[in-house]
Specification:
Number of strands: 0
Number of helices: 3
Strand content: under 5%
Structural class: mainly alpha
Order of helices and strands: HHH
Shape: elongated
Largest sheet: none
Length: 123
């Protein structure tokens, strides 16, 4: 199986996990389009009760990563003990876990960079 197919599977899994974040950014998902003008009408976005959609999306992504890593470990153990019929399953699971870990780490790093940039802004 070419690496593009693996990337597509991993990307699709992560896309579903981060779908809530994209919906929150456009105002169609967890926020339900309720992010409106501030109390003074100055255009400031006010947090809403559904504002934790991004945190839930990140949590789901980490949970998915843990599941992929657990599956990879199980298949690797079966391969080492000789109980695995097809070694390709273990290789594919290992690659999926590795690519997903790299993706989650990149998203985390971008989030930290964005936070640091915001903290450097002058009021």
């Amino acid at each position: 199986m070419p690496i593009d197919a693996l990337n597509g599977v991993t990307t699709n899994a992560m896309t579903r996990a981060f779908a809530g974040a994209a919906d929150a950014a456009t105002g169609t998902g967890a926020l339900g389009g309720a992010a409106g003008a501030g109390a003074a009408g100055d255009g400031a976005v006010q947090p809403t009760a559904g504002g934790d959609g991004f945190a839930a999306s990140l949590g789901n992504a980490v949970d998915g990563l843990q599941q992929l890593q657990s599956n990879s470990k199980t298949l690797a153990l079966k391969a080492v003990t000789g109980n695995l019929d097809d070694i390709h399953d273990a290789t594919i699971a290992s690659t999926r876990a590795q690519v997903t870990l790299e993706l989650v780490a990149a998203v985390r790093n971008k989030g930290v960079d964005a936070f640091n940039e915001i903290m450097r802004m002058q009021a």
